[in-house]
Write a structure and sequence with these properties.
single chain, 325 residues, alpha+beta, Immunoglobulin-like, 2 domains, nine-stranded antiparallel beta sheet, eight-stranded antiparallel beta sheet, 6 helices, elongated
C-alpha cells in the first residue's frame, strides 16, 4: 500500500475516532449531557404576572392569592392548571438546545418581529424571563429566542400551545368541580316553591318536599352531574351587574349539600340576548353564561322523576290449589 493511501486512511480513522469521542464523551460526568438550565434562577412559584403580546392582541394574566385572573376591560378567572403547566415548562429549557446563532436566520424560525413576545414577571418591573416564541419545529416542539440574544433554541415542549392563546382559551369556565358521590341532599327553589331530594342510608333517593315519593336513581345522577361538574359555555363579553343578570330574583336556586351541611349553591338568572342563561356560584362574583341544555334539567317536572312502583310478586305456582266446595 502506498504511503499516500496509508496517510489518507489514517486521517479517515482519526476523524471517525474524534467523532465517536465527541458524541460519546466518555470523560463527561453522569447527567452533564442533559444540559444546564437556560434560566437556573427561575422559580415558577415566584411568577405573579404573565404578558403575551402578539400582532393580534395582548393577554395579561395576574396572580391573586392562589388564583390567576385575566386582566383587561373585564376581569375573568384564568385556568390555574393551564398557567402552572406553562410555567413548569421553563425548567425544561436547557442551554444545549441551541439550533442557531445566526441573526440572519431569525426570520426562518419566526423569532423576529413576526413571533410572539412572552414576558414572565416575578415581583419586579423587569421580567424574569422574556422571550420571543417562534414557529413549531418539525418534531412538534417550538423554536424560541431570549430577548436581546441571537441564539435560537428548539424546545421539545409545545410552547406555542402553552403560552400563545387567545383570552377565551385562558378562561376557567368551571362553575363547580365537586364529586357527585359526596352529595346527599338537593334543594331547588323557585320563588316561593321549594323541592327537596334526599339520599337514604341504602343509597336510594326520594323526594321529601313538597310531596314524598321515591325517585329514579338515574334521574338524580343526571341532576348531580349537571350541578357538581357544571362548566359554563362562555363568559359575558360585557359583564352585567348582578341585577342585570337577574340574580335579584333568580329563576332557580340549586343547593347540593353533603352530610356535614357543607355544599355548593348555584343561582340561575335571566336569559342573555343569545338565549344562554346567566349563572353564578352564590359565594363568588364571577358571572357565567350557560346554555339552555345545561339548565333544563333543573326545571324538570317533579313527577317525571318519580320511580315506578315495584311490580307485585307473582303467586307461587308450586303451592297447591285450595278447592272450596
Amino acid at each position: 500500500m502506498e504511503g499516500k493511501q496509508i496517510r489518507n486512511m489514517a486521517l479517515v480513522f482519526g476523524g471517525l475516532a474524534a467523532l465517536v469521542l465527541l458524541l460519546e464523551r466518555p470523560w463527561s460526568k453522569e447527567g452533564e449531557d442533559a444540559g444546564k438550565a437556560l434560566y437556573p434562577n427561575f422559580s415558577a412559584d415566584r411568577v405573579d404576572r404573565i404578558v403575551v403580546e402578539s400582532s393580534k392582541d395582548t393577554v395579561t394574566l395576574a396572580k391573586r392569592g392562589e388564583l390567576w385572573v385575566i386582566e383587561g376591560a373585564n376581569l375573568y378567572p384564568a385556568d390555574t392548571a393551564s398557567v402552572h403547566r406553562a410555567l413548569e415548562a421553563v425548567d425544561h429549557w436547557t442551554a444545549n438546545q441551541i439550533v442557531s446563532k445566526n441573526p440572519a436566520k431569525h426570520s426562518v424560525y419566526e423569532v423576529d418581529s413576526t413571533g410572539v413576545l412572552v414576558k414572565l414577571y416575578a415581583g419586579k418591573d423587569d421580567p424574569a424571563v422574556s422571550l420571543i416564541v417562534g414557529k413549531t419545529s418539525p418534531e412538534g416542539g417550538t423554536y424560541f429566542r431570549p430577548v436581546g440574544s441571537d441564539e435560537v433554541y428548539g424546545s421539545p415542549d409545545r410552547i406555542r400551545s402553552l403560552f400563545v392563546r387567545v383570552e377565551r382559551a385562558w378562561q376557567d369556565r368551571r362553575v363547580f368541580d365537586v364529586e357527585p358521590t359526596e352529595i346527599s341532599r338537593l334543594k331547588f327553589e323557585h320563588g316561593d316553591s321549594t323541592a327537596v331530594l334526599e339520599k337514604g342510608t341504602d343509597g336510594t333517593w326520594a323526594l321529601k318536599e313538597p310531596e314524598t315519593f321515591a325517585v329514579k336513581t338515574e334521574e338524580v345522577d343526571n341532576l348531580l352531574r349537571h350541578v357538581c361538574k357544571l362548566v359554563a359555555n362562555a363568559m359575558p363579553d360585557t359583564m352585567p351587574t348582578p341585577s342585570q343578570a337577574g340574580f335579584d330574583h333568580p329563576k332557580r336556586k340549586v343547593r347540593a349539600e353533603r352530610l356535614d351541611g357543607t355544599g355548593i349553591d348555584l343561582l340561575i338568572g335571566s336569559q342573555a340576548w343569545d338565549g344562554t342563561y346567566y349563572a353564578k356560584a352564590a359565594d363568588r362574583d364571577w358571572i357565567y353564561k350557560v346554555a339552555t341544555y345545561r339548565v333544563d334539567p333543573f326545571f324538570k317536572d317533579l313527577h317525571s322523576l318519580k320511580a315506578p312502583l315495584p311490580t307485585p310478586a307473582p303467586p307461587d305456582s308450586a303451592a297447591p290449589a285450595v278447592h272450596v266446595p
